[in-house]
Every structure is written in structure tokens, then in C-alpha cells.
Amino acid sequence: MVTMKRGAAAVAAIALGLTGLAACGTDSADDQGHVYFLNSKSEIVDQLDQLASMYTEETGVEVEVQTATSGTFDSTLTSELAKSNAPTMFNIAGYDQFAKYMDYLEPLTDTDVYDLLTEDGKAYSYAVDGESYTLPYAAEWYGIIYNKAILEDYCSKSYAVIDSVDDITDYDTFKSVVESIQENKDDLGLTGAITSPGLDASDAYRFVAHMSRIPLFFEYRDNDTTFMPEIKGTYLDNYKDLFDLELESSPTEPGLLSSKTYDDCTAEFALGQVAFYPNGVWAYSGIKDNEVADEDLGMLPYYMGIEGEEEYGPAGVYDASWAVNKNSDEKDKQATLDFIEWMVTDDEAKQILAKDCDLAVPFTTFGDDDQPDNPLTAAAKAQFDAGKIELRSFTVPNQQWQDNITNALVEYAQGTGEWSAVKDAYVNGWATEWANNEESLGMLPQADKFSAEG
């Protein structure tokens, strides 16, 4: 594997906005081809370097991994793809990136590694005219996380409206429980029933990138489609009901929510101060080793009172994908596909992805023993094992759409704006930003027939 002395490597990495191995796509000295992976997930740099070293030692094929520094991946990828020794594989996250880099994407439908994807993995692979171009490698789920110990304590009280958490199967019941806990929070030793709906930039994604997709899913369901460039916001009143419930039942005054950070909100739950926390499996890293035991972590779906929602479990999100550079040399493309296939089939490599990277990898080669040691992941998957359907997270236009909703939510929470502004940002902003995308990117997602199974 090509390396550089640490001092020179640091200079090169800073210049490129990269971290990790310093060499960038040098020509292979033999006929095996080489792999140059430009990675966007800084939290798994060490694990990717380990995988690269293992594969090179096992096969002799050079594997170089570079990781763009935070906030620079898009600009770094654009720059690196323009070079003669460009990445042979890179990350794609979001439809805007997919459309922007479409001219660089190798078709993957007929490859052996694509065949190894689960059906959910294939459903989330970005496709045009029936041809898939990305390989999702991280399945994650989000819903309403809860503390079993707090709920068991609550259920033992005379004022409890349920006998056990298993009784929470719809929004009306959930709302009754939240309101009851909030009313009796002092007796329960809590600061609120549910974490603060933080609207600081670090936390707003919970409401504009994730919770916003719940009403979108059901509007698509009603229209038997998987994409519409214009929407009505049919279920935004349901979204409002849940958001209002959080405003009224959290430890933070609504006027202070714009400065409430992700770490603040995670701490409220991790320290046992609240019973519920709308978030995803990734929150486990901030919850563990605090006041909530692993065995006390559970997850409910995002209940909002939408007809038919009781059939669904937590929402799935598969934003992180691998892509192969179609402009790479043929032997380098094959080397890259072989490396990806090795990562999802080799027993030791699979353990690194699942256990060390904490990824639920949506390939059929990953069995029950190849899952991350994350009780929230286990809680989400248990619902699917019990017959719940995964609620699919359909793509949203871009960051601007999310920012506009955040701004409107802040004004609404503070009492300086009306809910109509949130609806305008959601509905009219949707049409505006997809129109902007079509003009700038030249394409829109393709609509398929809706499937309840996602």
C-alpha cells in the first residue's frame, strides 16, 4: 500500500481537505488494478484504514482511503474527480449528490455485489430507467426512543393511563401518556415527559430531515407514488399535533428552543430526565454509559394520528452509499467492485463494518450475528420481526428546504410566527426547490408505484 512520511502526508491532507492515507490514486504497478476510496464518514476512518490494509495484505491489491474533512466532502469530491488519478469509489448521500455526480457513476445492477444487497438495500439504491448506480451500506432507523425503567415506574402509579409500554400502539394513547407524565413529572423525578425539540442547527434535523418525512410517506401512499414534484401537505396537521405535544411537554420553554443543541437534548434523555426522545439508532453513542441502561432502551414508531400508521414500525434511512467511478480504468473498476464484495463477504471484514463501525449493513451476507451491538438497532429490528412494516424515508429536495422549515418552526415555537409559514415552507418550498434542482441538476427522481413494504 502506498504511504508517505507523516509530516509530508499532513501537508498534503490539509491542502486537499483530506484525512487518512495520504497517497491519492497512483498508478498500479501490476495488472490487478487499484482502489482509491474517497470517504465522507470521518467517524470510521480507522476502521476503513484497517480494512484497506487487510485487503492489500491478503490480495496484493493497493487500496488507498482518503477522508474529506468535515464540511468539505462535496468540494473535495468535485476536485478529485477532475484529476487523472481520480477516486475509483466514493460516497453518495442524498439525491442532490446523486444527480450532481451522475456522469461519474458506474451502472451496478448487473454486478455480483449488487445482487448481494437486501431487498431494502436495492429499494434505496439510486436508479434511473431501471438501472441502479449506488450501493447503500448503512441501514439506520429512527422513531421515538423511550426509557423502559421510567415507563415501568410510571405504570406502577395510580394515575397511569396504561398498564405497560406495550399499550402504546397509536397516537391517542401516546399523547395521553405524554400528557400524564408531564402532569406528574415532579412525582416521577423528571424535568419533562419528552426531550426538548431543539431547533439549533445541530438538532433541527430531527424535525426537518426526519420527522418531516412521516407525513410525506403517507401522502405518497395516498397517491400511489414514490415521488411528486409538488405536494399538498395532507398530513401536516398531524405533524403539528406531535410537534405541539413536544413543545408543551419538554423541559425547555418554547422561546428558548432555537439555542437548544443536539447535545443538550441527548443529555436530557441520557441522564434519565425525560421518558421519550424522538431520534435514531445513531443516538446510542451519546446515550450509553450514562443513566439509561442498555436493556432499558426501546423505540416506538413516529405516531402522529395518521390512518394506517399502526401497521408501520420505525422509519428506515439508507443515506450512506458507495458508488464506483465509471471513468476509472476497467481493471481499477473491477478491483474496486472486488474490494466492496470482499468487505461484505469476508467474515473479519463484516465484523469490522458491523461491530467496530456500528453499521447495520443491508447485504444478505449479514446475518443475526453480524449486527451492530446497538440496543436501539435491535429494538427497531424487533418490530419488523414482529410484522411491522418499515416506513421508508423518501428523499427530500435539499438543505435549503430544510433550513426554510427550521426558520419557520423557530418563529412558530417562539410565538412570533404562524403555523401557516411552516406549511408554506414545507409545501411551496418543496415545489420551488425541486424546480431549482431540475434546472441546476437536469433531472428529478423517478416515480414508481407505491409499495407498502417500501
Describe the structure.
The protein is an alpha+beta fold. It is built from 19 helices and 13 strands. The protein has helices at residues 6-16, 45-59, 73-81, 95-100, 112-115, 119-123, 148-155, 171-183, 185-188, 205-210, 213-222, 236-248, 262-270, 284-287, 330-343, 347-356, 375-385, 399-414, 419-441; strands at residues 18-20, 34-39, 62-68, 89-92, 127-128, 131-132, 135-136, 140-147, 276-280, 297-300, 312-317, 321-324, 389-392. Helix 18 packs antiparallel against helix 19 (419-441). The protein is globular and about 75 Å long. The model is unreliable at 1-16 and 20-29 (pLDDT under 50).
Relative helix content: 40-55%
In total, the number of strands is 13
Given as residue ranges, the uncertain stretches (5+ residues, pLDDT < 50) are: 1-16, 20-29
Question: What structural category arises from helix and sheet content?
Answer: alpha+beta
* pLDDT averaged over residues: 92
